[in-house]
Amino acid sequence: MATNFTKSTARNIFFGGSLFFFLLFLALTFDTNQRLPKTDNSAVINPAVAHGKKVWETHDCIGCHTLLGEGAYFAPELGNVYKRRGPDFIKAWIKGQPTGAPGRRQMPQFNLSDEELNDLVEFFKYTSEINTNNWPPNVEG
Amino acid sequence: MQFKSQAVAKPYFIAAIALFIGQIVFGLIMGLQYVKGDFLFPEIPFNVARMVHTNLLIVWILFGFMGAAYYLIPEETQTELWSPKLAITMFWVFLVAGALTILGYLAVPYATLAKLTGNDILSTMGREFLEQPLPTKLGIVVVALAFLLNIGMTLLKGRKTSISLILVLGLAGLAVFFLFSFYNPANLVKDKYYWWWVVHLWVEGVWELILGAILAFVLIKVTGVDREVIEKWLYVIITMTLITGIIGTGHHYYWIGTPSYWQVWGSVFSAMEPIPFFMLTVFAFNMVNKRRREHPNKAATLWALGTGVMAFLGAGVWGFLHTLAPVNYYTHGTQITAAHGHMAFYGAYAMVVLTIISYAMPLLRGRAANSNKAQVCEMWAFWLMTIAMVFITLFLTGAGILQTWLQRIATTPMSFMDTQAQLSIFYWLRETAGVVFAVGLITYVVSFFIKGETPAN
Q1: Is B333 part of the contact surface with chain A (CB cutoff 8 Å)?
Q2: How many beta-carbon pairs below 8 A join chains A and B?
Q3: What is the distance between the alpha carbons of residues B216 and B238, in angstroms, rounded to a whole number?
Q4: To the nearest 5 percent, what fractions of chain B are helix, strand and coil?
Q5: What is the mean pLDDT of residues B128-146?
Q6: H/E segment holding residue A71
Q7: B199 — contact with chain A (CB < 8 Å)?
Q8: Preceding amide of A136 cis, omega within 30
Q9: How many domains are there within chain A?
Q10: Interchain CB distance below 8 Å, B193 and A137
Q11: pLDDT one-digit tens code per residue, B230-241
């Protein structure tokens, strides 16, 4: 590096540059938050959806599945499972676990109550209607 | 070892290695579950194994970072640590909290754990990497604050070098961004948006400052190159890191219900994220080439160079591979992501911690470097683990390409589970590479117990 480029120049660029881009990030975050209601489907969030999200979280579903592509890659994407399978299939499937098929990946039996199952499905319905810029590419997730 | 209080780093390093072993054991379990789906079911379901695997990783890296700070801050500031007693107390607090958390994951169903630990008071659990119960999260905050106080007070009374400032800045950022783990709204999009403020702004932001500072410290020590030169490089590298990485967060905002302009911001800025990693590699090799002394610790130099190269490959190249929005549309949430995650975490963070351990541990044990024999053993471990990780990454990449094709591109897309069945050859190969990695790790641990006849040089 050129000799007139000193350490203190480098330091100043670091602090100035980082600060600038962090402020830009905050501005974009502010703008995103303004626009979110148009895409995030938050209008439909009711106590059932909120409780469904909690059921999702307290059973660590993300430890095997992805939700909008984020999570573990061991089991199917569930952000669009409502569209792929429909509410009745989802409930029956969760109740029927584990399959016990030898050598196959197993999902635990979580003993969910009817209310928990209903709310979880409501949560999946809400996630399936979030505007994700047409992701996933097809219904298989 | 120039200062007595640097000794507190030793238990941190030992704990880091012990937890690393646990991480790999659970990695092997999961790798097998990918092909033998009912392995250890229902005793250890996949999601439990994964929590243990990823949480142990985070905790051992944090132990490594804290150990690194306790070792290098006294030497950089030329003064004893403000309170060695506080550092040891916090070590035990963190270790016990971490161990109880892991035992909790394994001993009771997660829903029960959530109920027992007050998740109903403030719901924070059940999100990837942030699965820890509320008391653990609060414990992490307490430990982080006590740690920052200790390091901050030491810095205030001593010499203020750029390396120590950057390290502290990184560690402070780590603590600040962790606070977003307590924000968990019912709105999934907002939840995910700020979840990334912990995860992305850690690993592609402030952690890179810590990485750069540790690496710069070790390079000064092993090469004897002038501090002014090394610190100037360090500033340039972390400048590039933050100006690309902060807006680069946008590459996580393509498909989660956020405005579509993030596809442009995320693609442009994250496409530049490999630059700082490339500079890091060039920097490490340059400094070693310009070395003014032959440090007897050859193993530490190898780890330092390896960190540069593997961080560039794992975080830089494998990150770039799927970061552009049109590509990510097809690869998002596939084994491509897993491939990138493995090599990036190993190459950047596991390796930098192993670098500082390699440099500092002999000094903490009262010698400049280990015996030749011990170093050769450690270098075998380096190559076994590193090459195994390259293969793990390649096999997962193969799986990911095939998965993307069968499930998302082919004219009649296959279901997720049918696709998985087609990938089993890659998963078997990955598991085999994982076993080689474990052999490398055992070799690494063995290297600490090799005495050897003559000290190196």
Answers
A1: yes
A2: 228
A3: 12
A4: 80, 0, 20
A5: 97
A6: strand A70-71
A7: no
A8: yes
A9: 2
A10: no
A11: 999 999 999 999
Res B454 pLDDT > 90: no
Give me B163's structure tokens.
């390396």
Nearest to B187 among A14, A45, A106 (CB): A45
User: Do A48 and A108 sit in the same domain of this protein?
Assistant: yes
Mean pLDDT score across all residues of chain B: 97
- Which range marks the domain in which residue A80 is found? 41-141
Residue B121's Cβ-count burial label (10 Å; 0-12, 13-18, 19+) is exposed
How does pLDDT run across B281-321, given as a tens digit for each residue? Answer: 999 999 999 999 999 999 999 999 999 999 999 999 999 99
Q: Find residues 206-265 of chain B whose CB sits inside 8 Å of chain A.
A: 228, 231-233, 235-236, 238-239, 242-243, 246-247, 249-250, 252-260, 262-263, 265
Residues of A with Cβ-Cβ distance to B197 under 8 angstroms: none
**Does A2 contact chain B (CB < 8 Å)?**
no
Say yes or no: A90 and A136 in one domain: yes
Q: Is the pLDDT of residue A98 over 80?
A: yes
Of B162, B257, B260, the CB nearest to A7: B162
The single residue listed with the structure tokens 């059973």 is A59
Residue A2: per-residue pLDDT: 55
Regarding whether A69 and A53 lie in a shared domain, the answer is yes
Confidence of residue B389 (pLDDT cuts 50, 70, 90): very high
Asked if B194 has any chain A CB less than 8 Å from its own CB, the reply is: no
